[in-house]
Design a protein that fits this description.
binds fe (ii) ion, alpha+beta, 243 residues, 7 helices, six-stranded antiparallel β-sheet, binds 2-oxoglutaric acid, Jelly Rolls, 30% helix, 15 strands, single chain, seven-stranded antiparallel β-sheet
Amino acid sequence: MNAQLRTDAGVDARLRTYDWASLADELDAHGCAMLHDLLSPSECVELARMYADEAHFRSRVVMARHGFGRGEYRYFSYPLPELVSALRSAAYPQLAPIANRWNATMGLAVRYPATHAEFIDRCHAAGQRRPTPLLLQYGTGDYNCLHQDLYGEHVFPLQMAILLSEPGRDFQGGEFVLTEQRPRMQSRAEVVPLRQGCAVLFAVHQRPLQGTRGSYRVNLRHGVSRVRSGQRHTLGIIFHDAE
Ligand SMILES: O=C(O)CCC(=O)C(=O)O
Ligand SMILES: [Fe+2]
């Protein structure tokens, strides 16, 4: 679909234009899938600009202070900006069936409700009340070590990150990287060639992998390689809230 036509619509309508059956196939095969042209360049610029305004956020993390890498991020506070909230609630119902199928395959009892509001009620009832959507900011030399965004007992197994800057123009390097650790085997890396406004869907911590003798669980981590120059911003959408 034409990028302009897509980004003219609301986020909900935009998300419905993607071919979710083939995205599910990609997630099953690779643990990640891309949504091209999810946000327009102006939406990306507007979101990236929010980073400077403390009023939007509940906390700021300087990655070097925690050994997380180099660069910084800020968690939004509730109420989330409308676009962030819309992305979170509109992407969730597309992902919940995939999450439920993955859990069934992995022999996990947890099932996810059809709407994000119901899932967030579950998180909040368990004391996971702090919002997790975040903006990340990287400058020259910054990077994000491989990690998993787990914030308590309740975990939604898929998440989304949207690149807000344009590679090659705004920054060099800074690739989104996923690694997949397979039991008793060597790890596999995947580099996701994001462009501005493009989202990546990926597994938060584990997913089923079909082997020749049935399926088994693999452990995933994600991060960002070193930004060689320039400035890079990302919007992270995590569906569970934090303790
Ligand atoms: O900056 C990135 O591309 C990675 C962001 C990230 O770690 C996240 O959204 O959870
Ligand atoms: Fe992350």
